[in-house]
Structures are given as structure tokens and as C-alpha cells.
Write a structure and sequence with these properties.
By secondary structure, the protein is mainly alpha-helical. The protein is about 75% helix and about 5% strand. The protein has a two-stranded antiparallel ribbon with strand order 1-2.
Length: about 170
């Protein structure tokens, strides 16, 4: 099996984790928060890179919307964080970079990009920064779990084995 097939398989597995984990969302303020999605974003960014992470976030958001466990806010809320986490990790090769990318990308940029979706497509009334507090809480929780998982994988040498298999 070539590395692209392995990456696609892992992206599919992570997407499934995000979709199933999204069934357990927490209403915080104006948004449904699913910290599992942000955990998956960081793990995908570190293991697969920015484009697979964004693809996984998009498919998970789409599936969650189709089965009724997500909202349209899931798209900017997850995809921007996944992209920024992946790009920063790719550039700096440091786990804190992926964490910061996910938190800033989702908590600030994704939250602000959710405003026109909420107002224009969902008919909600909201202030420009209305989603920032709930998105930040959500992404910090999920990203923290991702860092703990990745650190555990590093300590047990599973991370290096995964990376070797993905090359």
C-alpha cells in the first residue's frame, strides 16, 4: 500500500472519530461545541499535513450537518483551524505551533468567519465577535486533548511508527 493510500485511510479514520465524537456536542453560548473535532484537527495536522487536515474537517462538518449533529458554523469553525494548525506545524515542526494554529484559526478566525454565515444563511442575529468565547473554549479543550494524545504516542514510540508508515 502506498503512502497516499495510507494517508487517505488515516484521514478517513480521523474523520470518523470527529463525526462520532460530534454526536456529543456541548451547547456553549450561540454554538454547538464539539471538542473532538479540534482534537482530530491537531492530530491530522501533525500526522498528515494541512491539506488532509482541512479535507478531514470539511468531510466531518458535512457529515455532521447531514446527520443533524452539526451546524453550518462547523465549516469555518473547523476548517480554518485545521489549515492554520497544519501550516504552522509544517513550517515549524513543533507541537505547540499546531496547538496555537488550531486555537487561533478556530477560536478567532473561524469564529469571525462564522458571523456572516450565522446572519446571512441561518437568519440569526449576532455580533461580529459573538462566537469567539464559545469557539475558544471548544478549541482549547480539544486541542489540549490532542497534545496529550500526541505526547503519549511519542512516549510510546507509536508516533514514529505511524510517521514511518505514512512516508
Amino acid at each position: 500500500m502506498n503512502s497516499q493510500t495510507r494517508k487517505l485511510a488515516l484521514a478517513g479514520l480521523l474523520t470518523a472519530v470527529a463525526v462520532v465524537g460530534g454526536m456529543f456536542s456541548i451547547p456553549i453560548g450561540a454554538a454547538k461545541c464539539s471538542p473532538v473535532q479540534h482534537m482530530v484537527n491537531v492530530i491530522a495536522a501533525v500526522l498528515l499535513g494541512p491539506w488532509y487536515a482541512v479535507g478531514s474537517a470539511f468531510v466531518a462538518s458535512l457529515l455532521r450537518n447531514l446527520i443533524g449533529t452539526g451546524s453550518l458554523l462547523a465549516f469555518p469553525g473547523s476548517m480554518v483551524g485545521a489549515l492554520l494548525a497544519g501550516l504552522l506545524y509544517q513550517k515549524l515542526r513543533r507541537l505547540p505551533a499546531a496547538f496555537v494554529g488550531e486555537v487561533f484559526g478556530t477560536g478567532i478566525l473561524g469564529a469571525v468567519l462564522s458571523y456572516p454565515i450565522a446572519v446571512g444563511l441561518m437568519g440569526r442575529t449576532a455580533a461580529l465577535f459573538a462566537f469567539v468565547p464559545s469557539f475558544l473554549i471548544n478549541t482549547v479543550a480539544g486541542s489540549t486533548v490532542a497534545v496529550l494524545v500526541i505526547c503519549a504516542l511519542e512516549r510510546t514510540h507509536v508516533l514514529s511508527t505511524l510517521r514511518t508508515g505514512l512516508r
